[in-house]
């Protein structure tokens, strides 16, 4: 009997508390000065989902290493949204036409042979100007081709060196060339410095980071690539496929892990060692044997055994014409 009374008292008290909460709770929480705002102590945020990063933290090495390139561009004046009408000053081109200025080489700065070829080609063209006041486009004298920190051609302290350039202007009307970025095995597209509003001519650029009608996608070429096309080719119309021993040739390293591994690991499917020769080696990096798979021994042996001659100037012009004909014919189909 006593237990029933205790249960009845507890049930009655619980019902009273519930009624008190629903009838008086909202009224007691409502403030006459703040209206019906359920969170009056919260400040208004224009973009509550975006992480706040103090400006001084964006200058640290830890931020440059650990933060993705896309996140960096989001944090730097909307450079990821750059287009020709928003990040390019056309008034510089209206004065003297299309002129390209190459920064003079600074004392003590080393430049790779590949980047020197690019600069020499620009300086030897009719668009070059030695007067920055007449320039429409600016090209750095600092080698930005290889941004792999493990590479001997990697230029250190590039961020501070670029920021100290008097004409940098947050990269406006500047063109930056890059072939390699990131470090094995991830090979992210982090260049190690903020490109700002500069245009980027880059090899193997992802669709996520490519800014349409602003950036330039260029092929990945080796240091042995000739500066000029050489003699005229002999490819004639409708000679497709061309009369060559090899239709497709590739010889390079096979990344066992990281970005690019899926693509190069699939090359063996079309390799026939006759007219399609695709040779890869697993010997990449100091610890490649830790990631060794069942095909590595065979691939390595075939890679060392078969010699693939390097293309001549005539071959490059030949392939360029072949590519043009294939595109032209596909458009007319």
TrEMBL record:
Signal peptide: none annotated. It comes from the Eukaryota. GO terms for biological process: heparan sulfate proteoglycan biosynthetic process. The keyword Transferase applies. GO terms for molecular function: glycosyltransferase activity. Residues 95-302 form the Exostosin GT47 domain. Keywords: Glycosyltransferase, Transferase. Belongs to the glycosyltransferase 47 family. This is Exostosin-1a. It comes from Anabarilius grahami (Kanglang fish).
């Amino acid at each position: 009997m006593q237990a029933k009374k205790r249960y009845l008292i507890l049930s009655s008290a619980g019902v009273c508390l519930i009624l008190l909460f629903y009838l008086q709770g909202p009224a007691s929480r409502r403030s006459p000065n703040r209206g019906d705002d359920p969170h009056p102590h919260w400040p208004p945020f224009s973009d509550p989902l975006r992480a706040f990063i103090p400006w001084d933290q964006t200058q640290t090495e830890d931020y440059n290493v650990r933060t993705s390139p896309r996140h960096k561009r989001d944090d730097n004046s909307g450079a990821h949204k750059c287009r020709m009408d928003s990040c390019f000053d056309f008034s510089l081109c209206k004065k003297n036409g299309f002129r390209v200025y190459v920064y003079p080489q600074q004392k003590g700065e080393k430049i790779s042979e590949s980047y020197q070829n690019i600069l020499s080609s620009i300086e030897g063209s009719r668009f070059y100007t030695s007067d920055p006041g007449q320039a429409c486009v600016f090209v750095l004298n600092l080698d930005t081709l290889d941004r792999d920190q493990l590479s001997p051609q990697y230029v250190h302290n590039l961020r501070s060196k670029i920021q100290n350039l008097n004409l940098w202007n947050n990269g406006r009307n500047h063109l930056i060339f890059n072939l390699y970025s990131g470090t094995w095995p991830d090979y992210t597209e982090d260049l190690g410095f903020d490109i700002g509003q500069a245009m980027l001519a880059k090899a193997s650029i992802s669709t996520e980071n490519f800014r349409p009608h602003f950036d330039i996608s260029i092929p990945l070429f080796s240091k042995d690539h000739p500066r000029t096309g050489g003699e005229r080719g002999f490819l004639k119309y409708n000679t497709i496929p061309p009369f060559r021993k090899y239709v497709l040739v590739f010889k390079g390293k096979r990344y066992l892990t990281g970005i690019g591994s899926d693509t190069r690991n699939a090359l063996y499917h079309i390799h026939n060692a006759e007219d399609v020769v695709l040779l890869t080696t697993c010997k990449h990096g100091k610890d490649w044997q830790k990631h060794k798979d069942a095909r590595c021994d065979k691939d390595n042996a075939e890679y060392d055994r078969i010699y693939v001659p390097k293309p001549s100037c005539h071959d490059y012009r030949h392939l360029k014409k072949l590519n043009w004909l294939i595109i032209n014919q596909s458009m007319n189909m």
